[in-house]
């Protein structure tokens, strides 16, 4: 990890420059000369020789710059149309932003203060005004000095909603045709904009009414609508995403009905295709055609799940969202390591559901963003904390190390949010756009994923227990200890402040049995079993491995190993207490055995009983990393 971070530091200045360049282009309302674009284009071409992910970021910006060169105003039109959910017949991409705040971190006062800062995102959201703004901006950017802004602004304000909608549709159509034709369609595109400009000025004279003195048209980049909620129930995420995905359908079928229909139409794969079920209406379609159609559907669903995996790999070039014609949900979670733990469990549940019946995958692009917020002063963290100096923000610290631009923008934003509690002046909050501006910059420019691997946890309890086996996942941290020995932990913590004269005598024998596969320095794996004299085990995730620290009352037995698989068993009728991702809400007691291994992605583990389909699935999945990762968007991106 340290070596990879050191290699990236020599290129870190490239990332801020590239993202700032892109942001200036979409926010600037002025026509940028072609010569400037050409110079930028040549510079970007030279950056493609950089290692990934820098070349990937450069390529993304290069494509956007090329599109803006041939179709001025296209980046603004597409981004605003998607973010504001402006309905039209030619560019149907839509986006929604959901902000989930962890109630364990957000007090009532902090929640109220944050809501006040996010409120401006809901101002002036009427579609006609937004459509007029898009027309104004595209014509201004495309026509340059030949466009009289004041006259065009007055003309647009004089138009009725129906006429404004018509011209908005014409502008969107002109942009999409120009993007499709590339550089060869630039001249026709500019001529079309000139025709639209003249038509608006002519039509406004016919419809002109008395106009108020204040202008409502603006070419400034509007804020996307922010949907904020406290994340109290895990199902909240699924429900919001499913409802958003279903809104993309032309019918009004509910999510529950959709799931029931899928279950009724597609029987379990273990029984292949159930042709014995008779329909009350006799079908004229031959059975073999139905069977082939079902095979194709299974393969298509499997490839869709695999495509999600491939698209989120850092440095990859995913298919453009607008080319898929799907909606995009941007999910922002605010909190500490605990909220990422909840997100990991919710995402794991989503992938398992999708592997059985596709509800979201073919309709929705899912993007995760993380803003670290804590309710604890870092200076007050315990000196024997598992992540000393980081407390419950260990993953935020990790993201900041691998991506300095994330650290400068997002980690600093989280620190500012933590200080909002108690600031109740709502009028000043509405006028302070720092939080919204930074959030929007992160949403629009955070395009590269840091893949945080998830680990599966299988906990076994006594057979007499109502739930003898529990399966969970964690992303950052697992701690297991024996409750009856916690007083020993406190004693060791107290003695750590004083220099011991002699090693402490051993006070008990082996109470925990551990079986694991140790990763040596040579990267070879050695099977080993051990029974250290410990009162607890602390496990943290790292670069493709877990770091396991055994805690003993005798410092001699405080050992650390690196592994990917480990099994922990309590001896002598004792039981373990297991806490996941430092979240007391995810604490399990009475556990006899804990088995930890990399969490497999259900979407890549799906198998068909059809032999032909099975062979094709193996062909596509052979080179895929089957471990499920939580993809957090940053500015640089890296795989851990």
Automatic annotation (TrEMBL):
One of its GO terms (molecular function) is 1-phosphatidylinositol-3-kinase regulator activity. Pfam families: PI3K_1B_p101. It comes from the Eukaryota. GO terms for cellular component: phosphatidylinositol 3-kinase complex, class IB. Residues 264-275 have a biased composition (Polar residues). GO terms for biological process: G protein-coupled receptor signaling pathway. InterPro entries: PIK3R5/6. Residues 252-275 are annotated as: Disordered. This is Phosphoinositide 3-kinase regulatory subunit 6 isoform X2. It comes from Cottoperca gobio (Frogmouth).
